[in-house]
User: What shape does this take?
Amino acid sequence: MSENTTTEAFADGTPFMHLFGKPARTKILSVFVAERGRDLSKSEIAHQAGIARSTVYDHLDELSRLGVIKHTRDTRSGHSERYQLNEESRISEFLYKLEGVTLQKLLELDEEDKD
Assistant: This one.
């Protein structure tokens, strides 16, 4: 007799999966880290991340709820909504540092490959 059970992989419920989740969310986070301190519209985020604007909509609320990004301007001012990396968030601080450390390691590996 075969059992029809669904098992969730351990990683599925981890904080990293909640933060990074899908490849699109990782691309969005990458844009915010790269454009640190700059207000971005949904269209700019989508363009730089190489994803559909509708996909950006799918992720901004959760990233805002986590405190990673913040809403900086809304349509009441007559302009498009804008968002930026929340510099006061510890998560954002660590993302920025993680990017730097990763870049440094990639450069080191590139140098080793040239030798």
Remarks:
- The domain at 17-114 is CATH 1.10.10.10 (Arc Repressor Mutant, subunit A).
- The mean pLDDT is 85.
- The chain has one domain: 17-114.
- The chain is about 55% helix and 10% strand.
